[in-house]
Amino acid sequence: MAARISYAQVAPGTELPARGFPVTRATLVRYAGASGDFNPIHWNERFAREVGLPDVIAHGMFTMAEAVRVVTDWAGDPGAVLEYGVRFTKPVVVPDDETGALIEVSGKVAAKLDDEARTVRVDLTAASAGQKVLGMARAVVRLA
Amino acid sequence: MALDQSFVGRSYPPTRPYEVGREKIREFAEAIGDAHPAYTDPEAAKQLGHPDVIAPPTFVFAITYRAAFEVVSDPELGLDYSRVVHGDQRFVYSRPVRAGDRLSVTSHIDAVKSLAGNDIVDVRGEVRDESGEHVVTAYTKLVARAAGEE
């Protein structure tokens, strides 16, 4: 298990290890089943194009789930996340091939919020195919 | 079509409890490719101070979204669900969701707006466990895009 990061170790500007999360059509089918979100824009190319999308797109909630892994892996305890919010700005387009798409996530400590509660705010960026896919992606996490 | 403003401030009765199972959490964690042991190994979760395996932060959306959908699909609200996209999502946690929880959602409509032809509804879902303790609040912004906009 990842060692827990202590509050004293971080400062505004501290960067979290960046990660890339691959997503293929198979990933989306699996996520649809696990989450119960069977909207066909996430698995049916014909339907996605009919509603004006360039291709099948990832569930926004899948992207949201991946982005926060940068925070939970860094903090060590996923239960230490106290707040997490995003704006869905652009879809992650997932082509029907072996590689699919890549969601690239980075994060940095934006502020130390409370010395007693040992909470920090982390600002995240998430991009796919050179496009920012999440806006205002922020998490508040309690450190050790 | 203008949305019915009288929906602002409405609250809905708590949903029938959803029982969070260990295997459902495992399935969700595998679907997002996250091998953190706190999601699958009760001992690892206990070492972090949790009584049982915990769910990834966004897991609870499957429960709150179902409740939000019930609320916004009321035809009297006037939201064209075929044009709805998920605008924003935010969670505020009192504690992580964990296996064994029986969770109930109370939904509230916080805002109903029309901006630049887009219809926007903010739904807040308060999630509580069987003892009534607050677990997490989900803030969901749904946007019905203006007709004809690409």
Automatic annotation (TrEMBL), chain A:
CDD domains associated with the record: SAV4209_like (cd03453)
One protein family per Pfam: MaoC_dehydratas
InterPro entries referenced in this protein's UniProt entry, alphabetically: Fatty_acid_synthase, HotDog_dom_sf, MaoC-like_dom
GO biological process, one term: fatty acid biosynthetic process
Domain of life (superkingdom): Bacteria
MaoC-like domain span: 11-121
GO cellular component: fatty acid synthase complex
Family to which the UniProt record says this protein belongs: Belongs to the enoyl-CoA hydratase/isomerase family.
Protein name per the record: MaoC like domain-containing protein
Species in which this protein is naturally found: Streptomyces aidingensis
Phylogenetic lineage: Bacteria, Bacillati, Actinomycetota, Actinomycetes, Kitasatosporales
From TrEMBL, chain B:
Pfam families the UniProt entry points to: FAS1_DH_region (PF13452)
CDD domains xrefs: R_hydratase_like
SUPFAM superfamilies: Thioesterase/thiol ester dehydrase-isomerase
Signal peptide bounds: none
Family matches, as Gene3D superfamilies: Hotdog Thioesterase
InterPro entries reported in the protein's UniProt record: FAS1-like_DH_region (IPR039569), HadA-like (IPR016709), HotDog_dom_sf (IPR029069), UPF0336/Enoyl-CoA_hydratase (IPR050965)
GO molecular function annotation: (3R)-hydroxyacyl-[acyl-carrier-protein] dehydratase activity
Family: Belongs to the UPF0336 family.
Matching PANTHER family: HYDROXYACYL-THIOESTER DEHYDRATASE TYPE 2, MITOCHONDRIAL, HYDROXYACYL-THIOESTER DEHYDRATASE TYPE 2, MITOCHONDRIAL-RELATED
Alphabetized HAMAP family for the sequence: UPF0336
Name the UniProt record assigns to this protein: UPF0336 protein SAMN05421773_101120
